[in-house]
Amino acid sequence: MDGDHPGSSGSGLDRARPGQRWVIRARLPDGSATDLIGWIEALAPTLRVRVDATSTVTIDPRSVVLARRAPAAPGGPDPRRVPAEELERHALPGWLAEHEPLGEWVLRAGGGFTGRANSCLAVGDPGRPIAQSAAAIREWSAAHGIEPRAQVIVGSDPDRELTTLGWSETYVATDVMVTRLADFLGSEPPAADVRVTEEFEPAWLAAYHRSRPNDAHPAVLRAILAGNPPRAFASAGEPELTAIARGHVSGAWLGLASIWTAPEHRRRGLATAMMRSLGHWAARRGARYAYLQVAAANSGAIQAYERLGFRRHHSYRYLTPA
C-alpha cells in the first residue's frame, strides 16, 4: 500500500469512502491532536471533510492517527418522546405562505392550495376565549377568500374546544410518522442516480404538477414549496423527471413531502432512494430526525413507511364550523 494513502499508518481511514461520516483524530504541527466529525468528500491527495452544510476542513492524510466510522446522522432519543405540539411547530414552515399569529396559533392562507397552507394551526394557547379565536379564524379566512379551517392535533384541547362549538372534521385525519435519521439512513451513502439541489427548478415543478395537477398561482406555489429555506428538492430520471421528493429542515427535524414516482417507474426503490438522499442532505444541516405525513386511511402507504422504520407519532385533522 502506498505510504501516502490515508490510513496507511493503521488509523483505519483506508476503509473510508466518499459520502460516509467519520470521526477523525489528526496530529497538529505542535504535536497536539484535534478531533473532528464529518462527511468524507475526498481522500487523496488531501483528505477533505465536510463538517456541516457550509464548512469543509482539509487535512494531510499522514497526520491522521485514528479514524472510525460514525452513523450517517447524529443520534438522539426516541423521537416519539417529542411532544406533538413541538413537532407541529417544526412542521409549520414547511407549508407556509401568508400567515399571522393568533396567540400561539398561526393563521395561514395560500390561495386555497393545500390544507396545511390554508388553515389555522391551532396548537397551544390562542390567548383569548375559544369563541373569539374561532371568530378570528372565520374573519381571516373570509378576508383571504378561503374556507375557515383549523388544523388540530387529535385529542388536544383545541380539538375538544372547537368541537364543542360545533366545528366538525372535514376529511380523514392524517398520521404523522417519525424515525431517527441515523436509523433510516443506515450505512449506505446517497444514491448515485438521485440528484438533490436547493434550487427550485422548472423540471422539478413540472413533475410536481404531474403528480398533483392544480391551478395554483405560480407565486403561491413558489412561496409554499420553496419560500422557507433550508429546503431541498430530490429528483431522478432524465430528460423528463420520473420521481421527485422535497425535504425541509427545521431544528433537528427533516420533513419529507411531495414524494412521487411516475406510475411506469414504481416498485424500483426510487422513492426510498430520494428520501434517503434528502436525509443525507439534512444530516449535514444538523437534522437528527425525519417525519412525514400520510392519510390515516392509506394503510398501504403506512405499512410501506413502517417497513422503512417510521412509526406513528400523532394524528391531526381539520375542523370547519357548521
Please supply descriptive tags for the structure shown above:
322 residues; alpha+beta; SH3 type barrels; Aminopeptidase; 3 domains; twelve-stranded mixed β-sheet; five-stranded antiparallel β-sheet; 17 strands; elongated
CATH top level label of the largest domain: Alpha Beta
- Radius of gyration using CA atoms only: 23 Å
CATH homology superfamily name of the largest domain = Gcn5-related N-acetyltransferase (GNAT)
Strand content: 25-35%
> Which architecture of the largest domain does the CATH hierarchy give at level 2?
3-Layer(aba) Sandwich
Distance between the termini: 76 Å
CATH topology of the largest domain: Aminopeptidase
Q: Ranges with pLDDT <50 over ≥5 residues?
A: 1-9
Fraction of residues in H or I helices: 10-25%
The counted number of beta strands is 17
What average pLDDT do the residues reach? 93
The ordered H/E elements are EEEEEHEEEHEHEEHEHHEEEHEHE
Basic shape: elongated
Organism: Microlunatus ginsengisoli
InterPro entries: Acyl_CoA_acyltransferase, GNAT_dom, Rv0428c-like_C, SH3_Rv0428c
Protein name: N-acetyltransferase domain-containing protein
